[in-house]
Design a protein that fits this description.
heterotetramer, A mainly alpha (359), B alpha/beta (442), C alpha/beta (273), D mainly alpha (568), A: 359 residues, ABC transporter involved in vitamin B12 uptake, BtuC, 13 helices, 74% helix, globular, D: 568 residues, 2 domains, two-stranded antiparallel sheet, 1% strand, disordered C terminus
């Protein structure tokens, strides 16, 4: 009887803490925002700017997150090395860009600039996809049926290996993307105090286009269908005559291509790349994928955008009104708190697939 | 059963190894018994070594003389350590790889720029009785972690890039005697920035951004404090921080722009500074703010990272134009050896640290009849502290009692179209401003 | 008074209604079977009773207590245990440990006690082990206690799963196709065994079964589901001749031809194999 | 042996060329990533071979070996495939040299320097580029001969290669340790400051090959297994006693650096054992273990520190229980909201918590109390002693960490055998079924999580005392990842496994500090290889090992035919 009572009390305590956490976070968000907005230190234009930069960051997260989510969907594997695949793409784009800049093609005129960006993307995608397929072949494929944690550790190993391979190849220094003149120009919007560059537009538009393309590809094409089938149930898909291996390899390739493209966009907007570049965006994109519901393609897009906004607007909105010193230092604290909050309310992410209940 | 057995086997193996290495007596390190072979000839050296409270490093004839650089060689900050390491390597090349009749054996230890990394590295260094000279570490945190261990072992290190003010204050703790540096103290750099902005340019409102690293936080604090002492104000929201790995600076810049300052000082590292410079130009309200960063960004990489936005940017840094004439040669050697420009600003300081080490070793080393060289540790430390007017790349080197060896010749640089390129040209020809010499004595 | 009462139970998955407005009453110490074609909602019904699914409508009571809002562990403690269609043992644990897990909530050892291994804990552990061995003996796999669960032969795994279920001291046992994958001899033994469970331990048995010989042999009452709805209920004899049931299994033509259910399903099984 | 001659056409040339090309890729990788040029200055055997050269030699040997395994030919010409593959691999290097002559490879790959080309051509410039092909062919042939030798003669050869590698790598540490003993002369004879001397190489190889042949492991095991249980005990107990004594004497015998390293290893053993409960037993993937480590470290630093941030000036022994307690309380508070979350969602949520704590520790928000990046200094050692004392420096931490690790191992072992341990395992195996058997999931998980947190807090507290300070920069995601890797590499749920895992993943990289950035390259490669060839871990629990091998057998089965699982 005593044990029953204790258990009941613990149950109640657990529920209490849960609700306490939810209420505390919501309260913090509401009060912080109210104080910040009430303080009126920031103009509407600066909020707009924050939203745009959040959207840009979020688009890049979303593109990387697609790779995480697709691989997770098909193999139930957290592909820790995906951030490094992204970094490799950024490097690939860099070398194409410097080559083009060296012969004066990059900024010759707007058309060559656009061709250059396309070439950079192509270079980045080639590098990323090659690397991703190598990693899949060497570090993941032999472990496909091993217990869950084994490929995870292998993925962590691959992540370190790639990082320090690139450090060995290119040294610890920072490589800077050459500037593409037309992309650095302002979009003439005519709003005082609110500026958007063409590159911001390019990032958001190309991210949306790529994601839409991917979504259609997965939903409409035969190959996409086979990827979905393998995600659902490998054994059954194999019985239906689907080449499981091919579907998995394609998944890695598509995810890597998205990451490579994201790498070039990242390079164009943030202009720097070194061997450590992939680590943080990798973790963030993974977070975005989980936020949206891992294994779910629209979820990854949504999660990326959401995370970008939380990071872009969150610190200023929630914390600056509360008088927290250096609120932007805490942007990741906000991002991860939001993640936990979302998971408490929706344990499988915003658009998460319902947790499969086997019976 | 099987596991137990395997375990026992492994551990027994360890025991065998350990039995072979068991010390005969718990004498202090360095007081080796191996000199018996040459007892007669080394009366002089033996007496000196016995008298030296930390004992001697001894290098038998034909053995190399061991020089070590320790600092951050892996992880995101590894440019800093790599840069200094190259400085030491070139210094060793310049003395043809020999010192005191021995070849030089150069090795490195990774300190990871963390206190525990410094601590472990120091333990390894302290255990190695062959080490004659020690250069490093890269970071203040490593210094703090390793100081006590090195001091206990009677070793002395000289750093080229740990700049925290507290490391060389006159009333520093006893164990800091193991630490000298050729790098300047942040105390001077932070104050100089404030003086330049307030007195020279007449600016009244300042904002600072640090990146959560010890270096940046301390430097920003010195600058802010001194700026206010001079009569300036720090803007509302003018004490900001970013994370080292941040790339999108718009939020922090928008926060600063809410009360626009005349100048923003961000003594952060290359990546972050590049992002801040680049993105500040696009933040409404900050168009006219002067941007300034510190020695951590005195590198062509910074210009590349910031892009065209770097034009007009201010950098406080050691004054390379006052570096000795040999500096140009150094740059040429660097290019030939490593295929590129230096990675950071402290290679010359590392070169100088090596020079000081070589000079001090030459001063105190004793060689007996069969060519064994003895280096009394305490005497070596004293010799380092007594270094006077040693010719270095950064200028004449004079060590004082609290461990500062380099003359702090700081200056303010302005990035011009020449450096921005393309191609990026480095370093800038001359600083635009330098404090009066009496600044360092005030 | 019936031991288990389900009234108007409905469970939907998205647009699909897996169980619709189902009523069910089970008397204590009876053996009741649920049959129906594949996808009829039998396992879903089990999952609703055992708390794996939250039902969308209706209510389920066990011995007078509403259980449809409870968690699985709470339902287990009230005295309902189950087995699974595909065996779900703890593969990495030994057979005896599998059974011991079922006793979890009867034991009181806290973590401090476990670390110190107090005399009370030792006595409790000993008793638990005895009980576990007794159960292994009862299901007929004593002597395999230390083998890894996943290495037992198939039939023994089924038995171990039942022993594990029994260790929670249930008064109602839900068996999901206990004879699946067994040969006729094994099946006969299992049928015997299920009857013993009821006769010797007085446990109520609710059974999902495809093997009609088994169903007709041991069931006292049979409930037939089709498309999530109950289409018939009664004694084996009533069910065997019920035209709706025959129709559900074989279509209208067979019902008119006058075949019985057990013939039909056995034929179907034969043609599948 | 029916036909001793192989015909040219019998050789599977496609496979041979493929292996050769992979060998070439590996060799070129070793060059471009910098291992060959950077480690050329680091001798393996002084004046004979450098580490950089060794890496290429090993790659070429391996090419031959793999070729021989792939193209399994017998007879007089059987070395031919290996030689060809080796030559192809060598030709890769030749191509690299020629390419470097034609275009500026260095504009992309920093290590494609004149130094590298010098090494590859033995200083003879492009004219000497063909040397690599010849060497490749010779080594490839040698490798394929090695592959074909009977086990009895291959084993000493393997020992030979391993001895040279180990001896050369650890020469510096061994020499340093010997120099301060009467064995200094011997140390100088056997070891150069870096690498072995020629004498040392010969002695080491003879000694080790001899010893390993005399006391071969399986032979000893067979003999011991052949004994009666009483006799076995007679052998085992003294061995265990000797082993225990060795563990106690280790820091004194090998000097303060090794003491520091093993103290750090012991610390990770302790944390590994803690996570072994959370992850190994209960199956909860916690990627934010560092959060509790931080709580423990800061608690001890605040309570004992004598710097400006110290608040109580307590002795270590009074503070450490609080470190554990606070870590557990934190574990409960953080765990409650997220333990309802499943599987990988839990992993990312815990990772998030780790990051939150890391950022907060270094933030301006908390720096008035925690020192931010400037840390809390002057954390005293548990026992204040003179530098020459038996317990000075890392030694006492080593003993404390060992004692705590033993304690935790005991706790873990007792819990594993109890009702609670069974509940954890059942959750790890199948949490739905466990719940249906009456196990309260949240409470059982919380207990595992909180206990794991407590042990991490203990580790953190000891860490603060070991380093004598705590800085926000010590709170890194890498700590969490390392601990997870220790548990998995050691073998999930296995107590000796956690010890071996920590030795392997913390000890070895620390000993190889001098290789600075390349350590992490090797660390990553080691993790991958480890998972490929020993997925069950270094020292798995008995059941888990079988399980993994069982599953991989199944893998083999269904890749071949994709057989339907239920064919009844």
């Amino acid at each position: 009887m005593y044990a029953r009572v204790m258990e009941r009390i613990t149950d109640v305590a657990i529920a209490g803490v849960l609700w306490g956490f939810r209420i505390a976070v919501v309260l913090l968000v509401v009060v912080g925002s109210a104080l910040t907005l009430g303080g009126g230190r920031h103009s509407a234009e600066s909020w707009l700017s924050l939203i745009v930069s959040g959207a840009v960051l979020g688009s890049i997260y979303a593109l990387i997150a697609l790779g995480y989510t697709m691989v997770y969907g098909i193999l139930r594997l957290i592909n820790f090395a995906h951030g490094e695949i992204f970094m490799a793409g950024t490097f690939g784009g860099y070398f194409v860009a410097t080559a083009l800049s060296g012969i004066g093609f990059l900024n010759l005129n707007p058309i060559t600039s656009i061709i250059s960006v396309v070439l950079m993307m192509a270079g980045a995608i080639v590098v990323s996809v090659t690397l991703a397929l190598l990693v899949e072949r060497i570090a993941y494929r032999p472990l496909r049926n091993a217990p869950r944690l084994v490929p995870l550790i292998s993925a962590i190993g691959a992540s370190f290996f790639l990082q320090y391979t690139f450090r060995g190849f290119f040294g610890p220094g920072i490589y800077a993307y050459p500037t593409v003149g037309i992309l650095d120009a302002q979009v003439p919007l005519g709003i005082e105090g609110f500026r958007v560059k063409w590159i911001d537009v390019l990032v958001i538009v190309s991210a949306v286009v790529m994601m839409a393309g991917l979504f259609l590809f997965v939903q409409r094409t035969k190959l996409g269908t086979s990827i979905r089938a393998v995600s659902e149930d490998k054994a059954t898909a194999a019985l239906m005559g689907i080449d499981v291996n091919r579907a998995i390899v394609m998944t890695f390739a598509i995810g890597a291509a998205m990451a490579g493209a994201a790498g070039v966009l990242y390079g164009l907007i943030f202009r720097q790349v070194y061997f450590f570049t992939g680590f943080v965006p990798g973790i963030k994109a993974f977070t975005a994928a989980v936020l949206g519901g891992i294994g779910n393609i629209p979820g990854a897009m949504l999660g990326g955008i959401f995370l970008g906004q939380v990071e872009g607007v969150g610190p200023t909105l929630f914390l600056s009104g509360l008088g927290v010193p250096s609120p932007n230092q805490l942007r990741d604290v906000i991002a991860f708190t939001m993640l936990v909050l979302v998971l408490i309310f929706r344990p499988s992410g915003i658009l998460g697939e319902r947790v499969a209940q086997r019976a | 059963m099987r596991n137990t057995l395997r375990w026992s086997a492994v551990l027994t193996g360890m025991l065998l190894v350990l039995a072979a290495c068991q010390p005969a007596s718990s004498g202090s390190p360095g007081q080796s018994t191996a000199e018996s072979a040459s007892a007669a000839a080394s009366v002089d050296a033996a007496a000196v070594c016995a008298a030296d409270e930390a004992g001697c490093v001894e290098i038998p004839s034909g053995e190399p003389l061991h020089i070590v650089f320790w600092g951050v060689l892996s992880g995101a900050d590894s440019t800093l350590g790599e840069d200094s390491k190259r400085g030491v390597e070139i210094a060793i090349d310049d003395i043809n790889n020999t010192l005191l009749g021995h070849d030089i054996q150069f090795s490195t230890e990774d300190g990871l720029c963390t206190p525990e990394g410094g601590n472990t590295a120091a333990q390894k260094l302290a255990a190695d009785t062959t080490i004659a000279g020690l250069i490093g570490p890269s970071c203040t945190d490593e210094s703090l972690g390793g100081m006590q261990t090195l001091y206990d072992a009677g070793m002395t290190t000289i750093s080229s890039s740990a700049t925290r003010a507290g490391l060389t204050v006159p009333d520093r703790p006893a164990e800091y005697a193991a630490f000298l540096r050729t790098a300047h103290s942040d105390y001077f750099q932070g104050r100089m920035v404030a003086e330049y902005l307030y007195n020279e340019l007449g600016l009244k409102k300042l904002a600072t951004v640090h990146d959560g690293s010890g270096y940046a936080k301390a430097l920003a604090e010195v600058a802010r404090t001194h700026f206010e002492e001079l009569g300036g104000t720090i803007t509302t929201g003018g004490d900001q921080a970013i994370a080292k790995t941040d790339t999108d600076m718009s939020a922090v810049l928008t926060a600063i722009a809410a009360d626009p300052p005349d100048a923003i000082f961000f003594p952060v590292f290359i990546a972050g500074a590049g992002y801040l410079t680049d993105q500040a130009k696009d933040t409404p309200g900050l168009e006219d703010a002067l941007l300034m960063s510190a020695d951590g960004t005195f590198s062509p990489d910074y210009i590349k990272a910031a892009g065209p936005a770097a034009l007009g940017h201010l950098i406080s840094s050691p004054d390379t134009s006052k570096f000795a004439a040999g500096y140009q040669d150094f740059l040429a050697k660097h290019k030939a050896k490593y295929g590129g420009d230096p990675l950071s600003i402290f290679h010359a300081h590392a070169y100088d640290a090596a020079t000081l080490v070589f000079a001090a070793l030459e001063k105190v080393a004793l060689t007996d009849a069969d060519g064994t060289t003895f280096i009394p540790r305490t005497a070596y430390r004293e010799a380092l502290y007594a270094s006077k007017d040693v010719e270095g790349l950064t200028g004449p080197l004079n060590c004082n009692a609290s461990g500062d060896c380099g003359a702090p010749i700081l200056a303010v640089y302005k990035v011009t179209a020449r450096e921005v390129g393309p191609p990026v040209v480095w370093p800038p020809e001359a600083p635009i401003w330098a404090p009066e010499p009496d600044f360092y004595t005030k | 008074m019936p031991q288990l009462v389900a009234k108007g139970v409905t469970k939907r998955f998205g647009g699909l209604v897996a169980v619709r407005d189902l009523d069910l009453e089970i008397e204590p110490s009876s053996i009741v079977s649920v049959i129906g074609p594949n996808g009829a909602g039998k396992t879903t019904l089990f999952n609703c009773i055992a708390g794996w699914y939250k039902i969308d409508d209706g209510k389920i009571e066990f011995e007078g207590q509403a259980i449809d809002k409870l968690r699985r562990d709470q339902i287990s403690r009230l005295g309902i245990a189950r087995t699974y269609q595909n065996i779900r043992l703890f593969a990495g644990m030994s057979a005896i440990e599998n059974v011991l897990v079922g006793q979890h909530h009867f034991l009181k050892t806290g973590w401090v006690g476990a670390v110190l291994r107090t005399p009370a804990v030792r006595v409790e552990e000993e008793k638990a082990h005895e009980e576990a061995l007794r159960l292994l003996q009862f299901v007929g796999i004593r002597g395999h206690g230390r083998s890894q669960a996943s290495e037992l032969p198939y039939g023994d795994q089924r038995r171990l799963e039942i022993a594990r279920a029994l260790s929670t001291q249930p008064r109602l046992l839900l068996l999901d196709e206990p004879t699946a994958g067994m040969n006729p001899a094994e099946t006969r033994k299992m049928t015997e065994f299920i009857r013993r469970l009821r006769d010797e331990l007085g446990i109520t048995i609710l059974l999902i079964e495809h093997e009609m010989r088994v169903v007709m042999d041991i069931s006292e009452r049979i409930t037939v589901l089709d498309y999530g709805e109950k289409i018939a209920e009664g004694t084996p004899r009533e069910i065997q001749t019920n035209p709706r049931v025959i129709e559900a299994y074989l279509g209208r033509g067979a019902a008119q031809a006058g075949t019985t259910v057990s013939d039909a399903t056995n034929e179907a099984a034969a043609s599948e194999a | 042996m029916d036909d001793t001659r192989i015909r040219f056409g019998d050789v599977p040339w496609g496979a041979v060329i493929r292996v050769g090309l992979i060998g070439a890729a590996v060799a070129i990788f070793l060059c471009l990533v910098g291992i060959v040029p950077v480690f050329h200055t680091r001798p393996l055997i002084k004046d004979v071979i450098s580490l950089g050269q060794t890496s290429v030699v090993l790659a070429l040997l391996a090419t031959g070996l793999v070729t021989a395994r792939t193209a399994d030919m017998r007879g007089t010409l059987s070395v031919l495939p290996g030689a060809v593959a080796g030559a192809i691999a060598g030709a890769g290097l030749t191509a690299l040299v020629i390419l470097g002559e034609v275009i500026n490879v260095r504009a992309v790959f920093l290590n494609a320097s004149p130094l590298l080309y010098g090494i590859l051509t033995f200083g003879s410039g492009i004219a000497g580029s063909w040397i690599a092909i010849v060497i490749g062919a010779v080594l490839g042939a040698a490798g394929s001969v090695g592959a074909r030798l009977p086990t009895s003669s291959r084993r000493p050869l393997t020992t030979f290669v391993l001895t040279l590698l180990m001896g050369g790598l650890f020469a510096g540490i061994l020499r340093t340790a010997m120099l301060s003993t009467p064995l200094a002369g011997l140390g100088r004879l056997l070891f150069a400051p870096l690498g072995l001397t020629i004498v040392g190489a010969i002695v080491a190889v003879i000694a080790f090959v001899g010893a390993s042949e005399l006391f071969h492991y399986t032979r000893v095991r067979d003999r011991v297994n052949g004994m009666a249980p009483a006799q076995q005990r007679l052998v085992t107990w003294p061995l265990l006693a000797i082993a225990a004594f060795a563990v106690l004497m280790l820091p004194h015998a090998l000097g303060p650096f090794v003491a520091q390293v093993i103290a750090l290893v012991a610390l990770y053993v302790l944390m590994g054992l803690g996570l072994n409960i959370t992850l190994g037993l209960a199956g909860l993937l916690d990627l934010g273990f560092v959060a509790f480590f931080a709580v423990g470290a800061y608690t001890v630093a605040l309570l004992t520190g004598t710097s400006e941030f110290g608040i109580a000036d307590w002795p270590f022994w009074a503070a450490i229980p609080f470190a554990v307690l606070f870590a557990m309380v934190f574990g409960a508070i953080l765990g409650l909201p997220i333990l309802g979350i499943r599987g990988d969602y839990l992993a990312i949520a815990t990772l998030g918590f780790g990051e939150i704590i890391r950022i907060l520790a270094g933030s301006d928000l908390l720096s008035p109390w925690l020192g931010g990046p400037h840390g809390i200094l002057n954390v005293p050692k548990p026992i204040a002693v003179q530098p020459t004392h038996f317990l000075a420096g890392p030694n006492q931490i080593y003993y404390i960490a060992i004692a705590c690790a033993v304690l935790i191992a005991f706790v873990a072992w007792r819990l594993r055998g109890s009702r609670i341990g069974r509940a954890w395992l059942s959750i790890r195996e199948d949490e739905d079924v466990a719940e249906a058997l009456g196990v309260n999931l949240v409470q059982t998980k919380i207990l595992a999580y909180v206990l794991g947190a407590g042990f991490a807090g203990l580790g953190g507290g000891i860490f603060a005392s070991l380093v004598g300070s705590i800085f926000s920069s010590s709170i890194q995601l890498f700590v969490s990842i390392n601990v997870v890797a220790i548990v998995v590499v050691g073998g999930m749920g296995s107590i000796p496994g956690a010890v071996l895992g920590a030795l392997f993943l913390i000890g070895v990289p620390e000993l190889f500090r001098e290789f600075s950035e390349y350590r992490f390259l090797f660390y990553g490669a080691a993790l991958i290889l480890m998972m490929l060839y020993r997925p069950e871990g270094l020292m798995p629990t008995r059941f888990a090992a079988r399980e993994v091998h069982l599953e991989s057998q199944e893998l083999g089965a269904d890749t071949v035919v994709a057989a339907p699982t239920e064919s009844t």
